[in-house]
Structures
1.
Amino acid sequence: MTQCDQVLAYLTEHGAISDTVARELFGINRLAARIWDLRRKGHKIENETVTFTTRLGRTGKYVIYRLKE
């Protein structure tokens, strides 16, 4: 099973995936590249950027990818 297959299966079953999940479950370090591959194959995937603040007051961002219905 390719990394794209793993991501697509996870998206189908769970609805969303982030970099952290992809790295921990599948060892995928470049999720955005696999999402790009899936989009090129015709899959409709949207992304949401989430901004967060740490306890130290620093801000960060991460992306959640979802299959578009």
2.
Amino acid sequence: MYETLSRFAQTWGFGFFMLMFAVAVAYALWPSNKSKFQAAARVPLDEGDPTDE
């Protein structure tokens, strides 16, 4: 029983994490997200009080 559950978790767990990794990479590289990531990259360089908005 333990070997069966262990084998199932190893194979399907690996597949699940590979799928989640692929989704995260696709989200990070999606062209429409470029402006959001560029704005987030500039946040530490912006001057002023963060409550000014």
